[in-house]
Amino acid sequence: MSVPVNTVFVALTATGGHLAERLAANLPGTEVHGLVDRVSKPDVAFDATAKHLRALFAAGRPIVGVCAAGILIRTLAPLLNAKHAEPAVVAMAEDGSVAVPLLGGHHGANTLARTLAAVTGGHAALTTAGDIGLGITLDNPPPGWRITNSPRTKGVAAALLAGDPVSLCVEAGNAAWLTASGLSFQCGTDGILITDRAITAEGSQLIFHPPVL
User: Fold this and answer.
1) DSSP result, 118-179
2) Contact at 8 Å (CB) between 33 and 10?
3) Which residue range forms the structural domain that includes residue 109?
């Protein structure tokens, strides 16, 4: 199991600190940041929770708050403006029972929540429609894949969720993450094209470029 090496576990209580230490010990490259006089021997100590959380978020560091989700939501809400560029944020219950992706679900938070739940034996409470209804996320393809026209992911995912026909054309690469997903592809107005050609996005096609030699 692995998570981004710059992930920070933020703990506000002694109980939260113990869980953060346990998680960090299982996930190399991560850090524990703890509230002064509440968390013993964190990697980084802070005395102003909101200020510290906002600084981490502005620096683009994935955050796992071992605290109430509301603390993270109220603190970070004023900073939200570009979801494709913002770091993942996950709220973790102090007893490790649940990990809730709050921001960046399709940009690392869902994967992070699953990893945390695997360590604690808890549950990853995913709420994104693609993960629940499709079992895949079109805007978070496997490593090495690129999307030419990412705004089209929303329309194609919506069509798949609604049961509307969506075509799939594979010109290059191994598309098993789609073909073995259990989704039904057929001729339709919306479509997915997987190609190694330099191509300009046109119409309603969602274009992926796979990793190829």
Assistant:
1) HHHT-EE----HIIIIISS-TTSPSTT-EES-TTHHHHHHHHHHHT--EEEEE-SS--HHHH
2) yes
3) 8-127
Asked if 54 and 71 touch (Cβ cutoff 8 Å), the reply is no
**Pick from 111, 127, 143: which residue ends a domain?**
127
Query: Count of CB atoms within 10 A of residue 93's CB?
Result: 19
In a domain, 1, yes or no: no
Are 9 and 64 in contact by the 8 Å Cβ rule? The answer is yes
Of 84, 102, 127, which one is at a domain's C-terminal end? 127
Q: Same domain, yes or no, for 151 and 199?
A: yes
In angstroms, the CA 77 to CA 30 distance is: 24
Domain count, the chain: 2
* pLDDT tens track, the chain, 213 positions: 668 889 999 999 999 999 999 999 999 999 999 999 999 999 999 999 999 999 999 999 999 999 999 999 999 999 999 877 899 999 999 999 999 999 987 778 888 999 999 999 999 998 877 666 777 778 778 888 988 888 888 888 888 888 888 899 888 888 888 888 888 888 777 889 999 888 876 677 899 999 875
DSSP class of 101 = E
Asked whether the beta carbons of 113 and 125 are under 8 A apart, the reply is: yes
Does residue 160 sit in the same domain as residue 190?
Answer: yes
Q: What is the distance between the alpha carbons of residues 130 and 22, in angstroms, rounded to a whole number?
A: 31
